[in-house]
Amino acid sequence: MPYGSRLAAMMTRRIGRECVYTPSARLALYLALRRWCLPGGRVLMSPVNDDVILFVVLAAGLRPVQAPVSQWDGNIDPAAVPETTWRNVDAVLTTNLYGMPDRVVELRRRCDELGIPLIEDAAHAIGTHVDGQPIGTFGQAAAFSLSKHVAGMACGFLAVEDVRTRRELELLRDDLLTPRRLRHDLTTTLRPLARSAVRSLHLVRPVWRTMQRLGLLERDDFRMALHAPRLAGSARHAPSLAAYEPWVRVDLHGFRSRHGALVRGQLELRMALLDGDLARRRAGVSLLAGTTWATPALRERTAHDGSPGLFRVPLLVHDRNALVTRLVDHGVVAGYVYDPPLDDYAGAEFVEPSPDPSAARWFAAHTLPADPLLARRISDALTKELATPAHPPIPARTPEPDTTTTTPPTPLGQ
Ligand SMILES: Cc1ncc(COP(=O)(O)O)c(C=O)c1O
User: Fold this and answer.
1) What is the number of domains present in the chain?
2) Which of 54, 143, 298, 332 has the fewest CB atoms found within 10 Å of its own CB?
3) How is the chain split among helix, strand and coil, in percent rounded to 5?
4) Where is region (Disordered) located (predicted)?
């Protein structure tokens, strides 16, 4: 039996696609990029994304092309991507940021027209559907991350269209796995327990501050240090996971360790909890979608389709950075802030900048990702802190030739 096949079968039952088990979603994405893109290819992606994913794309020997995004959810805005860009990309990588779906139907259509692969990053979106179809079943391949849900500290899947491709990718994966290390297995098993103990003992604040002081966090800021000269040197070895390991492994050093039976057994138990977890997330999303900080995109979606089981709820606030710091005093550590956008962070040497970066900058600077499992606590804390909702600037409108209305447009979300 292929390694991890019981877990993979559980995932296949959920989404109806063939799945390859991987120790992390980043490894699943690397496999997909290596399988569907030739080195030197150009990949269209959103700049509002985890920096680790940028390094996965670079490790696969590809050029990350930053797309204009929607100011409401940070995902690629296909209509704003210039035609010249469409004609010069070799693949599209979605984000489904915080679980809010990408415009996958349109992206799929464009990719089919151009004859290029659509690779879905569904790491945040295990519970997201578009017109009843699960995210992760629209493209040629999709990466899922169990560590974002049910507090599994590792585990990913690559979902693909058929058995033959799955078998091929299992072999590619086996070549990339590093031998099992007891230390990694123990960390993977014990970390979720330590995390919930810290929460239930109300130790979030002292533990977090101590980790910060001791330099145990791998990021001083929202982004990891780039180490540009070293990164440029790694390009000589691309495609190579090993050459980019110092960047790709941040937050998950065992991202390609072969897990033992202990970890896999624990993950099977945790996977069985997924539906309960998603139900609790939906309840939290419903609460947060009704607050003044919710995005109109979320409010609209919740009103039409019910609450989605998001990984995080993107709240739009002024003074986001100060709020992130103050929330720690309320026992809330707001992670997954992707600011600045990847093109501002890495520069033109490493990525192709977006032709219109304004929406990405605005969204990245004002988004507070709220864990729906802590919805009540976060909503109370934001009320106490007098957090002000932020509204994206309204783009300047070109005057229309025939002005039949005299009422000025109402800014969205106000
Ligand atoms: C958007 C996105 N994709 C993929 C990943 C990688 O997931 P994993 O930690 O399972 O490798 C992350 C990690 O945070 C992420 O935020």
Assistant:
1) 1
2) 332
3) 45, 10, 40
4) 384-414
